[in-house]
Write a structure and sequence with these properties.
- The protein has 247 residues and is α+β, with helices and mostly antiparallel strands.
- Among the domains are: 142-160 and 211-247, no CATH class; 163-208, no CATH class.
- 44% of the residues lie in helices and 25% in strands.
- The chain is built from 10 helices and 5 strands.
- It has helices at residues 34-45, 53-62, 66-79, 82-94, 99-106, 114-121, 127-133, 150-158, 212-222, 230-246; strands at residues 10-11, 15-20, 23-28, 161-184, 187-210.
- Helix 3 runs parallel beside helix 5 (99-106), helix 4 runs antiparallel to helix 5 and helix 8 runs antiparallel to helix 10.
- The radius of gyration is 27 Å and the shape is flat.
Length: 247
């Protein structure tokens, strides 16, 4: 294990730099330096100190080439642990790097990313990316008769039907405020008038969007098909929990 490890690794066509504590290797050249590149990769693959995880995540985020990112993310997977699992689920969802899902599935701690996945399923910004990732996450697969934890199941049910946005012609309503002047016993002054303005134009509308991926995940748990009826799925889960508790 490398002690007191501080990592800053940049792998690109023009620069290769590896820093581990006081040791710094830097090579700059107009041509690609394969020897320095291989040395950097070897140094990277040897890292097992969990203190290096934040720096590796920062380097992966800064790297603009996918192959370079995968080097860092693979090193994060090899270090392992709950923090590594959360970093990988973040890159899988927010950066849509699907290879991170396979990495999580190979990690013993991969299931530890479930709470973070639930937060993404409940996030309007990242919900669709999280849903698209579900089939690749092997830790979501349960043996027949096993039930997923309640928070995960509820997040899946809630994401059966999500919100989508479309643009169509329609009436728009806005408040318009105008300023006028008046003359009174105390001299000139100003007053404001607000009115509702109705105009015909392009409006943004919210429409429901059914999510077949989520439905297939739920069918895999239950061997049932309640379609997109969220209430029916919730009733099924409650019945299964009651049956399980009686055993």
């Amino acid at each position: 294990m490398v002690k007191n490890l501080v990592v800053l690794i940049l792998l690109s066509l023009s620069t290769v730099a590896v820093a581990a504590g006081p040791k710094v290797i830097t090579q700059k050249d107009r041509r690609f330096d394969h020897k320095a590149h291989d040395a950097a990769l070897k140094e990277l693959e040897s890292i097992r100190d969990r203190a290096a995880l934040p720096a590796l995540a920062k380097a992966a985020k800064a790297e603009k080439y996918l192959q370079g990112r995968l080097h860092y993310l693979t090193a994060i997977k090899e270090i392992g642990g709950p923090e590594a699992a959360n970093i990988l689920i973040k890159f899988a969802v927010e950066s849509r790097i699907t290879a991170c899902a396979e990495m999580l599935s190979e990690m013993p701690e991969g299931k530890g990313a479930t709470p973070q996945l639930i937060r993404y399923l409940r996030s309007e910004k990242h919900q669709q990316a999280a849903i698209d990732l579900l089939p690749r996450l092997k830790f979501l697969q349960y043996q027949s008769g096993q039930l997923p934890e309640p928070l995960l199941f509820q997040a899946l049910v809630d994401s059966l039907v999500t919100k989508d946005f479309v643009y169509a012609e329609g009436w728009t309503y806005t408040w318009s405020r105008s300023r006028g002047s008046h003359f009174g016993p105390h001299g000139a002054g100003f007053d404001f008038e607000s009115r509702l303005v109705q105009e015909w134009g392009i409006v943004k509308q919210t429409v429901p969007k059914e999510q077949p991926i989520t439905k297939e995940i739920l069918k895999g748990y239950s061997s049932q098909d309640y379609g997109y009826d969220q209430g029916a799925w919730e009733r099924w889960y409650r019945d299964q929990r009651r049956t399980s508790n009686r055993k």
